[in-house]
Amino acid sequence: MARNRVRKGRPLDGWLVIDKPTDLTSTAVVAIVKRAFNAQKVGHGGTLDPLATGLLPIALGAATKTVPYIMDGTKRYHFTLRLGEARDSDDADGEVTATSDVRPTDDELREATKGLTGDIMQVPPVFSALKVAGERAYDMARDGRPPELPPRPARVDRFELIDRPDADHAVFEVESGKGVYMRSLARDVALACGTVGHIAALRRLRVGPFTEVDAISLDKLVASAEEAPASPELLRPVATALADIPALALTSDEAALLLHGQALGLLNLMGRIPETGPDAVVRAMDGERVLGLCRLEEGWLQPVRLL
C-alpha cells in the first residue's frame, strides 16, 4: 500500500530576496536558504549565472506557485562589457575564442544598442540551460559539442550606455522581459560595432516588484541561522509577487465557492471588477488575504491558480 510522502522541514510560505554573491549558482543559494530556514519547499524566481550578483528571489512553500509571475516581470541589470575578447561562454568565466583591436566610440555603442532594443530575435549563449534533443546546451558545450541554437524572440525595453571607464570597457543598464540573456546582448552589441566582447561583470537590480531595498545578504541570513532556524519574519508575503496584478474583492461566501473550484458569474461582481482587457487575470482577494489568480472569461470568474 502506497504511503504519502512526508516532507522534512517547516511548512513556511513567503518570499525572500537574496543579494546573490559571485561564484555561487542559483541552485546552491536555494540549498543554503532551505537549510537556514529548515524549510520544506524552496525554489527560485529566475536563474543568475555564477559570475552574476544581485537579486535572486527565493520562494518558500505556497510562494513557489507564484514563481511564473515573478519570472514574467520586468528585470533590470547593469553589466560591464569587456571589448576586444570573445569568450565561448560570453562571460569572463569562459575561454578566449577571438580577439579584436577595434574599440568603438561611445556614439557607436549607443547606436548599436538601438538595434537591440524592442522586440528582437536573440541567439542564446551556448552555455545555457536550454535543452537540445534532450541534452542541456551547457553540457554539450563542455563536451566540445557546442549546439547551434536558433534565434528566439526577446523583449528589451531599455538598453543604455551609462559609463565608459576606459577604451576596453563599457557599462550598460538594461530593462527587459522574460528570457533575455545579458551575455547575448553584450556579445551582440560588440559585434554590431565591428568588434568582439563579453560580459566582465553583471548585477541584477530588479525582478518584478522586488528591488535592492528588499534584499538580504546571504552572509547575514546564514549568521542569523547559526543558533536556530532563520525567523519566518524575514519572509515577505506570498502576495508580494502578485502586486502588479489587478485586485478583485470578494465576499466571504464568494471566496468559499472559489476555493472549492467553482467559477463565479461576473454579473454578481459588477462594480468591483477592475478595468482590464478581455481574458485578463486578476488577483482574487478576501479582505487582505490573497485567494489566488482568476481569469475573466466568457461571463465567468474562472480560478486559474489558488494559493
UniProtKB/TrEMBL annotation:
Sequence ranges assigned to domain Pseudouridine synthase II N-terminal in this UniProt record: 34-182
UniProt keyword annotation of Nucleus present: no
Gene3D superfamilies tied to this protein: Pseudouridine synthase
GO process annotations (BP): mRNA pseudouridine synthesis; tRNA pseudouridine synthesis
Signal peptide: none
Source superkingdom: Bacteria
Active site: D49 (nucleophile)
E.C. numbers: 5.4.99.25
Claim: Isomerase is one of the keywords in the record: yes
Protein name: tRNA pseudouridine synthase B
Species the sequence originates in: Acetobacter nitrogenifigens DSM 23921 = NBRC 105050
